[in-house]
Design brief:
With 233 residues, this protein is α+β, with helices and mostly antiparallel strands. Helix content is 27%, strand content 25%. It has 2 domains: 58 residues; 151 residues, L,D-transpeptidase catalytic domain-like (Beta Barrel), CATH 2.40.440.10. Strand 4 and strand 5 form a beta hairpin. It is globular and about 40 Å long.
């Protein structure tokens, strides 16, 4: 009887010892797993890395993105603005064939010519002072006058059109395809083939003032007032 009891106790001790060994092994495994870096983190890192590469791949293809806006150019003598310092006082009816010119006391300076097709008028500014204004005639429906900024590329006092073979006195060329400012008979209801026609005496005064490279700004409805900036380029 005593011998059986001893065998049972020994068996129980062995079982407990075995369980203790298993528990220690399980604890060691748990600690080892806890000590290793989580698998979730490198996976997430790879996902983020792939996502971060998408903009780089797009950026490498210039057809897939808009170009960065260019930095504004530094102002130069030709495109720097100056302010309208004087508008000519015109009391007479501003009708076709009329012009006014007054440059007395106006300092020397850059010449800028503005043309407003909607107002059918031309203005000449020197150093920001308006020294001349006139009613114009301009392009008809068959060949309208283009808008934009045009440098004067040629001056010809007694020019004859090589396209229409008609006189164009005091011609100031604006484009290579024949658009110019020149003297013309300015009447209501008359148009041109794209040129800007001005009264002959006004054309002469303008011709004497300008030089090659001076800018002509042609708009369709833009009016300038005192204090506004004129951009010559």
């Amino acid at each position: 009887m005593a011998k059986q009891m001893m065998m049972r106790i020994s068996g129980a001790i062995l079982i407990l010892a075995g369980l203790s060994v298993l528990a220690l092994m399980a604890l060691a495994v748990v600690r080892a797993v806890a000590a290793e870096p989580s698998l979730a983190e490198p996976i997430a890192a790879v996902e983020r890395s792939e996502q971060d590469m998408v903009p780089m791949a797009i950026s490498a293809n210039p057809e897939m993105i808009e170009p960065a806006p260019a930095a504004p150019a530094e102002p130069t003598v030709s495109d720097s603005p100056f302010v309208v310092k004087r508008i000519l006082q015109i009391d007479e009816p501003f009708v076709h064939g009329y012009y006014k010119w007054d440059d007395e006391g106006v300092p020397d300076g850059e010449i800028v010519i503005t043309v407003d097709l909607k107002a059918e008028s031309i203005s000449v500014f020197r150093d920001g002072y308006e020294i001349g204004a006139a009613v114009i005639k301009f392009g008809d429906a068959l060949k309208p006058t283009p808008t934009g900024v045009f440098p004067i590329t040629q001056k010809s006092k007694d020019h004859i059109s090589n396209i229409y073979h008609v006189p164009m006195p005091y011609m100031l060329r604006l484009t290579n395809d024949g658009i110019a400012i020149h003297a013309a008979e300015v009447k209501w209801g008359y148009g041109t083939r794209g040129c800007i026609g001005v009264p002959e005496e006004f054309a002469r005064l303008l011709f004497e003032q300008v030089k090659l490279g001076d800018r002509v700004i042609v708009t369709n409805g833009k009016m300038l007032d005192l204090g506004e900036k004129i951009f010559a380029g």
